[in-house]
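INFO  loader      accepted 1 record
INFO  loader      residues=417
INFO  predictor   begin
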Amino acid sequence: MPNLRTAELWRSVIPEPGPVRGLAVAALTSRVGRGLFATVLPLYLTREVGLPAGQVGIGLTLASLVGLTVGVPAGYLSDVFGPRGLRAAARTAEALLLCGYVLLDSFAAFLVVACAVTLFESAGLAAEGALIAGSAAPDQRVRTRAYLRSVNNAGWTLGAVIAGGALLADTGRAYQVVVLIAAGCYLVSAAATMRVPAVPPVPRTKDGPRWVVLRDRPFVLLTMLNAVLGMNLGLFTVALPLFITTHTKVPVALYSVIVLINSIAATVFQVRASKGSDTVRGAATAQLRSGILFAGCCALWALADGQSVWLAAAFLLAGAGVHVAGELFQSAGAWGLSFELAPEHAVGQYQGMFGVGRDLGQILTPVVATTAMVSGGWVGCLLLGAMFLIAGVAVPPAARWAENRMVGITGPQEAAV
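INFO  predictor   done
INFO  writer      dumping tokens
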């Protein structure tokens, strides 16, 4: 019996040989690289390159805006030429461009490298979504995406821990070595991607629009609603620690405990939370739940404002628990909607569009959430909660509209490349 349980546990961690295992290796290595790179980047740029913190923030924001422009075109290319090659090429380009960070000596050079890296990162994510859709059975796509997110979380954490050595050394050489190791991880990810069976390309339709997703108004609406719900990440990573330090007497060290709880829960429970999100109705329900949970989490954090240390800590921890549950449902619902509402001949486009919404939400979150929670205190928390609730409630009717419209979207016909 113990051996059987051990075997079952092993299968839940390491998938059977096949496309998913290849995707997992590619995901793990790329996220280790991302964890390495992202952990040291701010200190490397400010302490070694000598850029002011303001310029670093401006450069990363502009790079994120550049990334928004490539999601849908990259998705289209994934559909027409196949996603595997595009994802591998994007990862290879990222690896080479990351090496440019060790040669930086000015803001202009940083801006060029950051924009180029982000552009290929966005292209790779669009292709990755299409590759997952083509590699997994339709009823296993959401589960596969959930499993890969757990892998991503583990990889990011591992990369951040390894990068901690460079932070302790706090030297330019240590930071540069970490950046180069991250580039190597991306090259390994590109090689692992090419071991995933190729997904046949689907030439664009002879009749009908090339950019079909841009004409799918209900899907664009769902993309924007998901962008709002996806702002919970910045709420957690940027606004919450600032709120703790400005509106409570709780030691900021508590935030480290909250992050640990979030990381463990997201890694362990993501697959379970995705159950039932492989239909449009199930995915919409998951996003509705996430909106309700985010509203509840904001209300709990609002109650921490001005309380005694122990009471505020209790509210913050309770809110963090509710938040991670909402985060799991939000992700599962997003995957279900983006897969189930995409025509088979335009999966890449639809994945790219959903990625644009996700990235837009991440760009806006630091300003919106920080202004609300830091400047507004408990009132700002409640306003953010209302925003999440409205977005969650709006998803089910928008999803029904999108599902009804699907029947009017033209399928693939004779190639018109």
